[in-house]
Amino acid sequence: MGGIGSGRRYQGGKNTTNDMQALDVRYLQRQGLLTPGRTSSLTWSRSGTVIGSIQITAHADRIILQYRHQRHNGPWQNLDYPVYLEKTHCNMGGQRTWFLCPAHGCGKRVAILYGGKIFACRHCHKLAYGSTREKRDDRASRKADRIREKLGWQVGILNPNGVKPKGMHWTTFHKLQLKHDVLVNQSLAGIVTRLRLFEDESLI
User: Fold this and answer.
1) How does pLDDT run across 3-56, given as a tens digit for each residue?
2) Which partner from 75, 104, 117, 132 sits 20 to 30 angstroms from 138, CA to CA?
3) C-alpha–C-alpha distance, residues 155 and 119, integer Å
4) Which residues of 186-198 are buried (b: 16+ CB within 10 A; e: fewer)?
């Protein structure tokens, strides 16, 4: 798993949220990975290549993260530490789970932690939002891949659509599938436009 500073850098010298492996508590909750006593493994991939993996063990009030970290081709380190959870009541009933940022002196309540040597909030890693610098078609492709992950489909907008996940309502599935297909069309249209511009420039 790459460390802080190993990703691309943009204006101002900051890494962006798109450069880092993200751990989303909402995803973990939806997938049942926060069930006390459960141990799960997650991987991150980019363009079909695995770029990181982590083991998560869930307890009632925390999860234990275990993974290896390497910074700038240095020695590998084995990391093993807790991230505490906090629940808040929702206005429409039920509860929402949050991470408490494990970085020293933080403890901020957040939905997403970003991986470096430790998983911490965006502010602790001093990350800029990458979406403001993304091209529209790249953003559409990223959002479509996020839906594909949620549906358990193979990541990559050129891959065929999969089937409805077990336990998901058909209404939810059709809504996500429609949103996915719209995003794919937006991404492909943007790619075609960029290719045409490239061809026009090459003829000059």
Assistant:
1) 333 344 333 446 766 667 888 898 888 889 999 999 998 888 766 677 788 999
2) 117
3) 23
4) bbbebbeeeeeee
Residue 149, Cβ neighbours under 10 Å: how many?
13
The CA distance from 85 to 26, in Å, is: 12
The pLDDT value recorded for residue 195 is 65
Q: In what order do the strands lie in the sheet with 95-100?
A: 39-46, 49-58, 62-69, 77-89, 95-100, 109-110
Q: How far is CA 14 from CA 4, 116, 133, in A?
A: 10, 14, 12
What mean pLDDT comes out for the span 57-81? Answer: 88
CB half-sphere exposure, 91, CA atoms < 13 A: 0
Nearest residue to 118 (alpha-carbon basis) of 100, 96, 142: 100
DSSP annotation of 2 reads B
